[in-house]
Amino acid sequence: MGMLPPVEFVVLGGGLAGRRLACDLARLGQQGILIEYHAFGGATLNVACLPDAMLVRAARIARQIRRGEGCGVGQGDAGVDLGRLFSAVGATVSAARSHDLALWPADRVELVIGQGRLIEPDRVEVALADGTFRRVRTRRVFVATGTTVATPDIPGLSGACPLTPRELFRLTRVPPQLVILGASFGGMAYAQAFAALGAEVTLIDEHERVARFEDAVFSDALAQQLRHEGVRLLTSTRVSGVSGLSGEGVTLSLEQGRQQFELDASDILLAGARQPLTRNIGLEAVGVRLDAHGCIVVDETLKSSVDGIYALGDVAAYPTPGHAVSDDARVALSLYGAPPRTTAGRVLPRIAFVDPEYARIGLSEAEARQAGIAVRVCRLPMHAVTRAWSEGELGGLMQAVLAEDDGRILGFAMLGIGAGDVTSAVQVAMHAGLPAAALAELPLAHPTAAEALNVLFGSGA
């Protein structure tokens, strides 16, 4: 059992939150260790954001080729060699990992690939791939282990060996008949992508509508887009059993209301609920409190129920939920003399790489009305946006939620080309306290998706 010299901090998890925090602490002169169980970069780099974005891009290109005649380009065969595509994904991930490793502050933060586990609040043990163990004493532990796709408790499902996003990029052929369980934003993005790549896709969810936490107008638009692209969408549908083996052939027993029927497919992909990676890392043994979902309960400084142990990113049960990975690192830096920052009251953006993109900042219309806030709602369909016409991407809409009394922007959402960038611009305006009228009159570049904000806010400001 090797014992390492004491360090100021240990980060469990090398995803975006963990890497950013470790690098920022190194710049402040702190000595520490980052432990990642899989590969440098965590799921964000290796099996999630980067690979997913490349898959979505390939699917978009395939769709554009098929409908190219609309812009004077002859239609062609958009067949995709999935093996070559995923080989390119692997090469890109490897290059990105090498780039990040070259910038890693190795003189301050040691990178250890292994399974980390708390054995005391101030002591961490690492199980290495060669079967040996190392221990280190530390002043603070930051848990940033992320989440993984949960396997629903459905008879026969585990035995069918369904795909998860981690295995997805090992495929060498487009599944002829792909069933995706879970109409999450990730599930919808995979459904769109594989439908564009030539698969017969069925997307199943037990809830009444997709994107159920977003306003119904966006949920309906997303469902319409999926069906337009050839995805068979089965909502309010429960899977009661699975037989067979994913990759060779499966049969799903389904219940939709009082109707019962079976569905045959070649492959199953899990893309629904996620569960935090908080098991078997010693949290319960040292007294860290978890919520009913297994997330770490934290206060507004990200501190857990045990002194010296903090949680960042998806494993934390946030007082304010949302896309907070990068900002959590800034909150944690407050412990080391950085400007005070907490999770209280922060307004966080969220973005989903469905095609076209969906993004939101602040309150939805439903959230505002449930809170009893008097609001005005402005909407603009994307077919009123010049850039949408030039790109041939007319689906979707913009929506703004404004305070009735003074026109403050309480929320903004967009499904359409460039949604992430446009939402970021609105976020800056919200942070600066600008009223909607200011954006209505601001001269914005033409032709961009953002210039439609003039029209959107002019209609209700």
From TrEMBL:
Residues 349-454 form the Pyridine nucleotide-disulphide oxidoreductase dimerisation domain. The keyword Nucleotide-binding applies. FAD binds at G116, D314. Pfam families: Pyr_redox_2 (PF07992), Pyr_redox_dim (PF02852). GO terms for molecular function: flavin adenine dinucleotide binding; NAD(P)H dehydrogenase (quinone) activity. Its cofactor is FAD. The keyword Lipid metabolism does not apply. InterPro entries: FAD/NAD-bd_sf, FAD/NAD-binding_dom, FAD/NAD-linked_Rdtase_dimer_sf, Pyr_nuc-diS_OxRdtase, Pyr_nucl-diS_OxRdtase_dimer. Keywords: FAD, Flavoprotein, Nucleotide-binding. Binds 1 FAD per subunit. The active site is at H446 (proton acceptor). Residues 9-322 form the FAD/NAD(P)-binding domain. Belongs to the class-I pyridine nucleotide-disulfide oxidoreductase family. PANTHER family: MERCURIC REDUCTASE (PTHR43014:SF2). This is Mercuric reductase.
